[in-house]
Hints:
Elements: E1 5-16, E2 20-29, E3 32-37, E4 43-47, E5 54-59, E6 66-71, E7 75-80, E8 85-91, E9 102-107, E10 116-118, E11 122-129, E12 136-139, E13 144-149, E14 152-157, E15 162-167, E16 180-185, E17 192-196, E18 200-205, E19 214-219, E20 225-230, E21 236-241, E22 246-250, E23 257-260, E24 267-272, E25 278-283, E26 287-292, E27 297-302, E28 314-315, E29 322-325, E30 330-335, E31 340-346, E32 362-368, E33 374-381, E34 389-398, E35 403-411, E36 418-423, E37 431-436, E38 441-450, E39 455-465, E40 472-477, E41 483-488, E42 491-496, E43 502-507, E44 515-518, E45 526-530, E46 535-539, E47 544-549, E48 557-559, E49 565-568, E50 572-575, E51 584-586, E52 594-601, E53 619-625, E54 630-632, H1 641-659, H2 675-682, H3 691-702, H4 710-729, H5 733-743
Parallel strand pairs: 8-10
Antiparallel strand pairs: 1-2, 2-3, 3-4, 5-6, 6-7, 7-8, 9-11, 12-13, 13-14, 14-15, 16-17, 17-18, 18-19, 20-21, 21-22, 22-23, 24-25, 25-26, 26-27, 28-29, 29-30, 30-31, 32-33, 33-34, 34-35, 36-37, 37-38, 38-39, 40-41, 41-42, 42-43, 44-45, 45-46, 46-47, 48-49, 49-50, 50-51, 52-53, 53-54
Helix pairs in contact: 3-4
Amino acid sequence: MSEYLQKTIKFIRLNIKHLVFVVFLLCASGDLVKVFSTSTEECVHVLEGHTGQVTGVILNPTNHLQVYSCSADGTIRLWDFIDGILIKTQVSKSVFVSPENFQLVALHLPKVPEQEVEAREMSAVLCNISSNPGSTAMGRGGEYVASVMGRQLTVYFFKKLKTYRFSLKATDKKGAKNAFTCVACHPKDDCIATGHEDGKIRLWRNFNQKKEYTYSTQHWHHDAVGTLCFTTEGMHLLSGGVESVLVQWHCEEVNKKDFLPRLGGAISHICVSPDGQMYSTSHLDNKINIIHCSLKLSAVIQGLVKGNIWTDLMIDPRTRALVMNGRPGHLQFYSLQQDKQLYSLDIVQQEYINQEGLDQFEVMRAAFSVGGTWLATVEERGRCTSDLESSLKLWVYNEKAQSFELNTTITAAHQDRIMHMCFSPSTETTMLVTTAWDNQFKVWLLGLDSDTQKEHASWSCDYVGSYHGLQPTNCCFSSDGSLLAVSFKEVVTIWSSDTWELLTTLCQPPGPIRELCFGRLSCSKYLLGTTAKNLFCWNLLTCSCQYPLQWFPNIYSPAFPQSLHVLLSSPLFVFRPSEPRPLFTQKAVCGGKVQRCVFSPREEPLDSCDERFQWLNRSRLYFLTELMVPLLVDDSVAVTPFYLLLGKHRQQQEEKQNSGVSQAADRVQPPQASVAIKELLHTPAHVLPAASFLCSMFVNSLLISNTGSRYGSLLVQMGRYVGWACKDLGLRAVHCRMIYSGILSPSF
């Protein structure tokens, strides 16, 4: 789930052949509506069409196979979610949403056969309501609507056209906060449940009159109530909050309640299936839990966890999953291809206590070995105080368990905070280097501890290095593992990994080094480094600066794939380490600020022959924005205009053949043998005139006498395109030969 899951989730249960029940879960995710199977946890369909954030999803009361969705783009769309087909779009151009004043309006949907209709009839129901969807609820089949905001409950009756408002004091006698947070209406009884900031739940009755209303109070939550929901028959009331506990209240027995704890993050939304057999909870950590009515967890749908990102974005060499901070104290392994979380690794191995101001352990650094056999993590507590607690942990991959297991824990590996670490790519030894604020870098080696019964692999410190008392910031190994580069503020030191001898130092103008990386493959002789606004490249054979680039406004996040160096700032720049000229640039990468980026290897490499786009052949570039949304640099940047033109024609030809409408007489074949073609392909390139001069003559020789032929019009269009490209780009005649021969290929 590339977008953060929204609060709106709906169940639907289908009866197939009167024997098998299939339950689907529909949820709003950004500008999409996703349909999940509750039995397999797989995404069955993605309903695409909205251009703004989807704000609500509701089943069609007259057809259980259809669903309505509303969006901030001002449209209401009707879908067949079984087949994933858009049925109708209701456009409301007159709706104006103010960020300060929200209104509840009644919109009449006209019943017309057109697929896109403008809905004009609307009337205001309530003004100045909360923007939180959980603050408004419908009661008794649409007889009334209840809305809460601040310390006021508003109830509007549609038939009577009357509005009743009930207010609470700011605090009660014990000083508790009475502000409303959410509301739910009983499906069959005149009862309204409201949640409050102090954790209390109030059940309101007799609210159809101003003076004789009553309410009773229930209390279990220690913090604000996040959401409320009645079951289908109204026998139970479900509540949730930051405690991550689903509480089931018995409406007939006031003091009886059941609990389902440890569900994940804070509960933000609850819904119930139409038959009342399944519950669903949506959490702030982008997770949906599917629960049986007996309070047994049935399935989990986990998206990309939103939170603080302390580690870099990493790719697991084994699963090719994105690895980053997840739940507090965890690392999440997220599949970018399948758009779901594979699993979460508990690093801290302590129960997280959701309490503001409480200092708890967090995963701050992580690194994988080349083959993915080893994982190194650093956890810290007390970052804002002088009492820093940190641990360096080494994890080994267990093939049987298909997960990482803790191998070694090193308490206080450094005297200060660890800033960076990396594994050696050498296959001869397993080596880890860490740098810290204690002005030292340490080398850790894997060894075997001989025991009387078994041999256990463990880690130990092999070397401690420093440079003139300066603080190290970054480190990296060369591609063969023979050299280690460690940056000490503005100075880069090169060390031999065999003897740990300082070989040389590289300096650059003032500014601490942020990132270091050796070139790969044919560019392995280069070392690249970045500061806040500059990019530097050193040639290790001459120990000199190959080039400095000082025109970047701000470098947000660098990434290094294969032999290329990629920088992300407001635009995207792609470089070869050997050349200071950008290989590729893209101005509008995204609307927000780029936080981090990472290259993910492809399952099947592309075969782009254009030099500017070869950096996308074996990997994809993902970047993370401030909204915690992973975005992908589109593969279409590697597509040439000729590919688009040919591809469009081939698609039209396939559609024409599949439709069966075209006739054989209309398919006029181009001439298979042409004197002009043979002369052009057999004439040496150095004696041919300019390609721009030959283009129009060549295409004219291919034209067919039938002026109505689509094939002839395509050649004319392509001839103009080729002539413009040859003239503008200065292509040689031999290049145009390849283009022309492509036109005449049998696959065309």
